[in-house]
Design goal:
about 160 residues; alpha+beta; Nuclear Transport Factor 2, Chain: A; Archaeosine Trna-guanine Transglycosylase, Chain: A, domain 4; six-stranded mixed beta sheet; five-stranded antiparallel beta sheet; 11 strands; about 25% helix
Length: about 160
């Protein structure tokens, strides 16, 4: 795996990033002394925490990679899908409301979320909420999450 244009973030940038992530996910993921680099892996802009690709940039926001979710296990912004949806989600399909069994009620439209299965709670994908967490739990039709990164996609393959 060849990461281009890789450079270390300044301490001020690391503090801003840590604050942004704490605000959005209500948790600390690394301290201000962590070695944080940003670079390009083919078409993806990625953030490396101590040489691990834990975040990517999507629409100018830092988003967990599946590797990052496994490492940090965030407690918020989750969407749980039934086992029937797993095969579709891991192939990159958007998440439909009928397949959702649970969701973080604090999710707002346009929030970045992570999707897991109901049985093992394994992370399957990362996406953008198209409706609130409450709507995801109650609506029985429509797209709920637009998938942006999933198991088996190009970024996942490159980082494994």
């Amino acid at each position: 795996m060849k990461i281009k244009n890789r450079h270390r973030l300044k301490e001020r940038e690391v503090k801003e990033l840590a604050l942004d992530l704490k605000t959005r996910f209500h948790s600390d993921f690394f301290d201000e002394k962590a070695a944080i680099d940003i670079g390009t892996l083919e078409e993806f802009t990625v953030l490396l925490i101590n040489d691990s690709i834990d975040f990517m940039i999507y629409n100018n926001k830092f988003v967990f990679t599946l590797q990052g979710i496994a490492k940090y296990q965030p407690k918020t912004n989750f969407v749980v899908v039934d086992m029937g949806a797993v095969g579709f989600v891991t192939k990159g399909a958007d998440v439909m409301a009928p397949g959702i069994t649970d969701a973080d009620e604090s999710i707002q439209k346009e929030d970045l979320v992570w999707i897991c299965d109901e049985k093992y709670h394994k992370s399957l994908a990362v996406g953008v909420a198209l409706m609130s967490g409450e709507e995801m739990k109650t609506k029985k039709q429509g797209k709920a999450v637009k998938t942006v990164h999933y198991v088996g996609d190009r970024l996942w393959t490159l980082s494994h």
